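User: I've been going back and forth on whether these two constructs are worth ordering. Before I decide, could you fold them both?

Assistant: Sure. I'll take them in the order you sent them. The first construct and its structure tokens:
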Amino acid sequence: MRVLVIPDVHLKPYLFYQALELMEKGEADQAVCLMDIPDDWDREYDIGLYVQTYDAAIEFAKRYPDALWAYGNHDLCYLWNERESGYSPGAARTVQEKLLELHRALPEGNEIRYIQKIDNVLFCHGGVLDYFVKSLVSPSEYKNENKAIRKINEFHHDLMWNDMSPIWLRPQYERGKMYKPRKLLQIVGHTPVEKIYREGNVISCDVFSTYRDGRPIGTQEFPVIDTETWEFWGIRCE
């Protein structure tokens, strides 16, 4: 299956407009969003942009109800009252209400999760560290990745708000072993990178984030992942 990945959004509604266009052109069979929908440099008072971005996400969810969504740390800080860098107290209620609206737009059984899985490919915001899984699930769950992922997706703040969790991990800098590197490919955002690239069993794709002055850090293209062959490529709207 060809999966279009919408990486870290950070108040860029055009990502959803462009993703809609690419999906309508048949560039992919399904989409996954790695979220971090709110917050960007010096935009904490631009409540209208928060609304516009969430409305674009909600419209995408309605148009493509099979799209999967994976929480980022910036999304969860509004649900867990954590003052993450970029957190906007003035937008907090708006974000909470719009996240609920996004939840309601998704069909039953399609929940926003920390980790999503298609074939043997994991999609999550930061990455799934082997030590994190081994430390927090039973040995039998560890051996069965579906059970392990299901268990982790039930965790709450106390187990998830740390640097080793799937919402915070930065495998681009941390050299710890990833979960089942020979069996599972991982698609992650969270850490801005200059280009989409693979190292080990991790494909990093946060290529839409910017510097404070608005200059792009990365190539600003959408990754497409073949979940059967593990091939990947980037595409843009023409």
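The second construct, handled the same way:
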Amino acid sequence: MICQDILHGELKPGQKLVVADLKDRYNVGASPIREALVQLSWSKYVKLEPQKGCWVAPVCENELRDLYESLRVVAPVLLKKAIACGNENWELEVLTAYHKLSRAQNLDTTPDWTEWEERHTHFHTTLLAGAEARNMFDFFRDLANQIKRYRYFALSQHQGNKHSLFDIEEHEMIMKLALAKNSEEAARLLDSHLDSSMKMIESAIQAA
């Protein structure tokens, strides 16, 4: 519950989190609240300081760049490994994940951007899951989870121009290159896609 409210901006970056207030907000006891806050601090959604208290983690351009620089190191390597190791089941899962993502972005209607974001995460995770590199994949998932908070923040800042934040055509091209076993070009486009995403989120932080 706390995590979702952080993602959706109900609890804003830098906001003080008081256990008594959260108990009333969610109608649960203090112990589950404290446990949730500790877990959220592990994923860096929450900042804990002994004797001082707890806050929603701020959004920071330096942290954003650090996260994306790390992601741009690991994700292209994972993609190349996934292309080399991926079997028919992986190919089918990638196709299915892309199809679900494309269905979430219908330009003729008002899209559900929360659903888009969940499907977007699923697409990228599925794309790289074919790699036989468990530790590297776990590192990717940890980075993606931290970046998720920044992506949701950017969504909240792009109310009138969300389509520019997410490019379905890029995802389609990455998918096609991966399924065609063109690992070098797929990795290059994925790296470019991640760089563009970082810059658009950076713009949202600067505009806030």
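Notes on the second construct follow. Residues 61-207 form a domain with the Four Helix Bundle (Hemerythrin (Met), subunit A) fold (CATH 1.20.120.530). The longest strand covers residues 46-49.
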